[in-house]
Amino acid sequence: xxxxxxxxxxxxxxxxxxxxxxxxxxxxxxxxxxxxxxxxxxxxxxxxxxxxxxxxxxxxxxxxxxxxxxxxxxxx
Length: 76
What we know:
globular; 76 residues; mainly alpha; 64% helix; Serine Threonine Protein Phosphatase 5, Tetratricopeptide repeat
């Protein structure tokens, strides 16, 4: 049974990102997307969150948008 992630439960961006990654890795894309959306509201330039959000995207077009946002925030 999947554990639902609720944004009110987050105490930091790092915690929310960690929970999001765990959710995506176990296949709970809905919870992962919810946590990642919260992370990006708090920190719109969070490259890792954009990359993980691409894993939740429903189609190639949405994935490309996430990757472009991630690439726009790199320091390379």
